Amino acid sequence: MSKLRRTNYTDHLKGKTIARGEHQVEGRSMKRRQFPYERVASLWAKGKKIAEIGVGIGWLDKGRDDGDRFHTLRNHLRLMHRGWRGPDGRVRKLPYRASRAVVKAAKDRSM
User: Looking at the domain assignment, is residue 18 inside a domain?
Assistant: First the structure.
C-alpha cells in the first residue's frame, strides 16, 4: 500500500509552513472560499455569459499558464448541471441553455 493511502497521510505536513500569496499559515489547513452557488444560479437564470458571471462574483483564475481565466468557473457550472444542495437542503440543478438534443449529442460524443 502506498504511503499516501494510509489514514495518516497528512502527518508529513504537520508543523510545516504553507505559503499562500503573502500570508503564511502554520500548522493548520488552508480554508477554501465558499463558492456562491445561489448567486451563480441567479445570474445564469438572467442569461448572463460565463465571463460576466465570473467578473460579477469575482471568481477568476489569475496567472494561469494557458491564460484561461474562467476554467474553474466553467468546472463549477459543469458540476452545477449535475446538481448541488441548496440552502434548504434539496438538490438543485442548473438548467442547460442548449437544447436537450445538443446536450445529449455532446455527452455521447465525449464518452
Answer: no
Long-range contacts of 25-29 (CB under 8 A, 24+ apart): none
What is the enclosing helix (H) or strand (E) of 20?
A: strand 17-20
CB-based contacts of 83, cutoff 8 Å, min separation 6: 91, 92, 93
Instruction: Find out whether 70 and 60 touch, Cβ atoms under 8 Å.
Output: yes
pLDDT higher than 80, residue 85? yes
pLDDT tens for each residue of 31-74? 778 899 999 999 999 999 999 999 999 988 888 888 889 999 99
Please, are residues 25 and 13 in contact by the beta-carbon 8 Å criterion?
no
Q: Is residue 57 part of a domain?
A: yes
Q: For residues 80 and 93, is the Cβ–Cβ distance under 8 A?
A: yes
| Structural domain contains residue 3 | no
